[in-house]
Amino acid sequence: RYYQQDLHWYLRQLEEVLIRILELYGLQGKRLTGMTGVWLEGRKVAAIGIKVKRWITMHGFSLNVCPDLTGFDRIVPCGIADRPVGSLAQFIPDLTVEKVRWAVATAFREVFEVQLITLGS
């Protein structure tokens, strides 16, 4: 209710979050016309999948930080056969999900102009 009821806008905002995460690491993520997600040097490093019901979103995005990419050899990720999947660790060795967590929160806060709170452990 606080944002536009426009799914294309929402998808582009999520892409912007992902692009800003990459920028925080000195990497230049890009959008490709007609495709959803973020690419880095021709490799898809982030995918977005959402479900919306009554303008409440579920699911979100996946950012490949340091996965084992061999599993992608047996499938056609996102139905895109001619574009390889990549990960941030290919560009920044020793990067971990824990190290990227703060960048995700920072970029999300900036793009959606929200204040984030930390829940108790």
List keywords for this structure.
121 residues, alpha+beta, BirA Bifunctional Protein, domain 2, 2 helices
Describe what you observe in this structure.
By secondary structure, this protein is α+β, with helices and mostly antiparallel strands. It is built from 2 helices and 3 strands; from the N terminus they run αβββα. It has helices spanning 7-24, 97-112, and strands at 38-40, 43-53, 56-63. A 3-stranded antiparallel β-sheet has the order 1-2-3. Helix 1 (7-24) crosses helix 2 (97-112). The chain is globular. The chain starts with 6 loop residues before the first helix and ends in a 9-residue tail after the last helix. Pathway: Protein modification; protein lipoylation via endogenous pathway; protein N(6)-(lipoyl)lysine from octanoyl-[acyl-carrier-protein]: step 1/2. It is an enzyme of class 2 (transferase). Its EC number is 2.3.1.181.
First-to-last CA distance? 29 Å
**CATH architecture descriptor:** 2-Layer Sandwich
**Based on the structure, what is the oligomeric state of the protein chains?**
single chain
State the shape.
globular
The strand count comes to: 3
Calculate the mean pLDDT score and round it.
90
Strand content: 15-25%
Summarize the structure.
By secondary structure, the chain is of the alpha+beta class. 28% of the residues lie in helices and 18% in strands. The radius of gyration is 15 Å and the shape is globular.
List the topology elements.
Layout: H1 7-24, E1 38-40, E2 43-53, E3 56-63, H2 97-112
Antiparallel strand pairs: 1-2, 2-3
Helix pairs in contact: 1-2
